[in-house]
């Protein structure tokens, strides 16, 4: 019978089971050891006839892959430097293109100018004359009026009593709604309250004429027709003029008071010796004078008031018994000061001291040491009624004013080379420089796109 070689492929059942059992429980040996162990347990001697079962596997084929660490060569570095350079170049190109686009789409042209100035030294021997606004003619110095009332008092010792008769006094505003011409009223003209109390003006006056539908007005000092406390009335909305009752002017010449009348008295009151009274009045009036000096600093913006032109009128108010033999002495100060519009004053001064300021718009600023004084003593009641003649001492600086719109219009569309010639046509400009953007522009754009920058005038 032919030999069945397929029977030799599988080992006997018992031997196979033993081998599998030992392999399952034994730790995993090295690959070569496993091969040798299997061969020995098969019980095959080296000289045993080889069959498919007894063929020893080749060591090269049975060896497991080597566990030695594999040396990894680093990958060649990427060329990052070149990539970064490309990005930087791209960003720079984009920035340049953006700047060019901005300059093309939003061109900027500016002109910086330094205004012309002139230092003026004032001479006390050359007085100026200012006129009330209502009567000032064109080209003259006009002034308005800033007025305020202050009161102060002091307590002194009384010495007995005295009989006194005093009339109330105060200020009222008289209006002329009748005519565009001045209306004169003589001294002691009567004004009557709705209750029939009579007050009289202390001096003759001329009420300014009306302007359109706005009545002319004038502040005047008045006193009560008789003594007595009943004349110490509060503000009165309308006084009439009894002497004009039969005239058509009656309804249009009237007055009003904005503060109470005071000082009216009739009867017995505590007496104060003349020496004590004069000392107390001097003390109180000194304090009032200090308060009055502060009025110049309250001039409206764009106006100027010189403290040296301040006028103060003092009024002694009735003494009031304080008890325990003491009397309160009170004084009232009515303060008035001329107020000048800065530009109009500068125009008048400029025309008087500089021929080149003729017909030019100028403003003025004064040194901190400037002084002003009236040529004649000013009464507070005269300010706003009469001209004020005054002198200035010290220095000032005339500053020429520039119209930016006119300069921009003159430059619009002109070549850059014509800049100096155009600037010479503006006498108010001492120095100018232009900046055209973008840099390749050779002419000025339209006026709306030219920015005019006026630098502050240099200190003097």
Low-confidence residue ranges: 1-12, 14-19, 29-55, 57-64
Number of strands: 20
* Strand-residue proportion: 25-35%
The sequence of SSEs as H and E is HHHHEEEEEEEEEEEEHEEEHEEEHHEE
- Which fold name is given in CATH as the topology of one domain? Elongation Factor Tu (Ef-tu), domain 3
Overall mean pLDDT stands at 81
What does the oligomeric state look like here? single chain
Report how far the terminal alpha carbons are from each other. 143 Å
Tell me the CATH architecture of one domain.
Beta Barrel
Radius of gyration: 55 Å
Give the class-level CATH name of one domain. Answer: Mainly Beta
Account of the protein in words:
This protein is an alpha+beta fold and 460 residues long. Among the domains are: 58 residues, no CATH class; 25 residues; 106 residues, Elongation Factor Tu (Ef-tu), domain 3. The chain is built from eight helices and 20 strands. The strands form four sheets. Strands 2, 3, 4, 13, 14, 15, 16, 17 and 18 form a nine-stranded mixed beta sheet that branches. Strands 5, 7, 8, 10, 11 and 12 form a six-stranded antiparallel beta sheet that branches. Strands 19-1-20 form a three-stranded mixed beta sheet. A hairpin with a 5-residue loop joins β7 and β8. The protein is elongated.
Quick recap:
Among the domains are: 5-62, no CATH class; 78-102; 161-266, Elongation Factor Tu (Ef-tu), domain 3. With 460 residues, the chain is of the alpha+beta class. The chain is 22% helix and 33% strand.
Question: What are the key terms here?
Answer:
20 strands; six-stranded antiparallel sheet; 8 helices; Elongation Factor Tu (Ef-tu), domain 3; alpha+beta
């Amino acid at each position: 019978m032919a030999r069945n070689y397929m029977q030799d492929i599988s080992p006997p059942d018992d031997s196979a089971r033993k081998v599998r059992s030992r392999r399952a429980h034994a730790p995993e040996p090295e690959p070569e050891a496993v091969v040798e162990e299997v061969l020995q347990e098969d019980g095959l001697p080296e000289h045993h006839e080889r069959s498919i079962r007894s063929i020893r596997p080749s060591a090269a084929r049975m060896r497991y892959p080597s566990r030695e660490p594999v040396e990894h060569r680093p990958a060649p570095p990427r060329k990052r430097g070149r990539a970064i350079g490309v990005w930087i170049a791209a960003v720079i190109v984009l920035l340049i293109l953006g700047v060019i686009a901005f300059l093309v789409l939003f061109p900027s042209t500016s002109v910086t100018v330094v205004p012309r100035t002139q230092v003026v030294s004032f001479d006390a021997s050359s007085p100026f004359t200012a006129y009330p606004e209502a009567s000032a003619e064109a080209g003259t110095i006009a002034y308005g009026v800033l007025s305020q009332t202050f009161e102060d008092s002091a307590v002194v010792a009384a010495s007995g009593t005295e009989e006194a008769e005093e009339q109330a006094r105060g200020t009222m505003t008289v209006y002329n709604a009748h005519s565009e011409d001045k209306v004169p009223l003589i001294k002691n003209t009567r004004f009557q309250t709705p209750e029939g109390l009579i007050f009289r003006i202390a001096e003759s006056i001329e009420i300014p004429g009306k302007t359109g539908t706005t009545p002319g007005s004038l502040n005047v000092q008045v006193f009560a027709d008789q003594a007595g406390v009943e004349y110490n009335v509060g503000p009165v909305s309308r006084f009439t003029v009894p002497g004009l009752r039969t005239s058509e002017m009656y309804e249009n010449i009237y007055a009003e008071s904005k503060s109470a009348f005071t000082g009216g008295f009739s009867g017995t009151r505590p007496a104060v010796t003349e020496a004590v009274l004069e000392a107390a009045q001097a003390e109180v009036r000194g304090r009032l004078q200090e308060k009055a000096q502060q009025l110049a600093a309250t001039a409206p913006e764009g106006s100027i008031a010189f403290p040296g032109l301040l006028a103060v009128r003092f009024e002694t108010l009735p003494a009031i018994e304080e008890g325990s033999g003491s009397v309160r002495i009170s004084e009232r100060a009515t303060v008035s000061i001329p107020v000048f519009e800065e530009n109009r004053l500068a125009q008048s001064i400029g025309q008087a001291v500089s021929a080149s300021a003729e017909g030019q718009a100028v403003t003025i600023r004064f040194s901190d040491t400037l002084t002003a004084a009236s040529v004649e003593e000013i009464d507070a009641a005269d300010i706003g009624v009469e001209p004020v003649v005054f002198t200035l001492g010290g220095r000032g600086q005339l500053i020429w004013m520039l119209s930016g719109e006119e300069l921009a219009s003159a430059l619009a569309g002109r070549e850059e080379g014509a800049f100096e010639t155009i600037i010479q046509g503006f006498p108010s400009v001492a120095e100018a420089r232009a900046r055209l953007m973008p840099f390749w522009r050779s002419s000025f754009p339209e006026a709306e796109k030219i920015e005019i920058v006026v630098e502050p005038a240099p200190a003097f």
